[in-house]
Specification:
Blueprint lengths: L4 E16 L3 E3 L2 E3 L3 E3 L7 H13 L5 H4 L12 H14 L2 E11 L9 H12 L6 E6 L5 H4 L3 E13 L1
Helix pairs in contact: 1-3
Length: 164
């Protein structure tokens, strides 16, 4: 009897305020900007949302299970390190990411010039293939904290392939 291959999709979401004096990381790529994301780690909301979606697809909880914000040892950790740990968790569950569709919602910086760099960075981290990673950005039309440029959010769907 052969191995069964199944596909599952998980949904991810993250939101952080901007903070002056921090570097801005989006999908593992450093983007020049006057502020970065506040957070226990480097605050990369795209990687956080992708990781939560991937963990959800294999019913393995969320990032807080593996990287609790109370853990002082991981203060300031790169989200790429977190994401690589999630890739290992997926491998342990005989799963791998086969598609990512991420949408960043922010007023600034304007992301279109950075789409390819973010996709390449995420491919380097997750190994899903550049052509299997969608990354886009939308405005919040001046509404609320995101619209005022005080925060940003990311929503994404991640499809994983599981071997049983």
């Amino acid at each position: 009897m052969g191995k069964e291959i199944i596909y599952r999709t998980g949904f991810g979401f993250d939101l952080h305020r901007f903070e002056k004096g921090r570097k801005l990381f989006i999908g593992g790529a450093e983007i020049k900007h006057d502020k970065g994301f506040a957070g226990h780690s480097d605050g990369d909301i795209v990687l956080h949302a992708v990781c939560d979606a991937a963990l959800g697809a294999v019913c393995a909880g969320d990032l807080g299970v593996y990287f609790p914000s109370e853990d002082k040892k991981i203060k300031g950790v790169s989200s790429a390190v977190i994401a690589k740990r999630v890739v290992k968790i997926l491998k342990e569950k005989k799963a791998r990411i086969v598609h990512i569709d991420a949408t960043l919602i922010t007023e600034s910086p304007k992301m279109k010039p950075h789409y390819a760099a973010v996709r390449k960075s995420m491919d380097n981290i997750f190994g899903a293939g550049f052509d299997n990673i969608s990354f886009k950005s939308k405005s919040h039309e001046g509404i609320g904290e995101i619209g005022r440029g005080e925060a940003a959010m990311c929503q994404c769907a991640v499809t994983v392939q599981l071997e049983r």
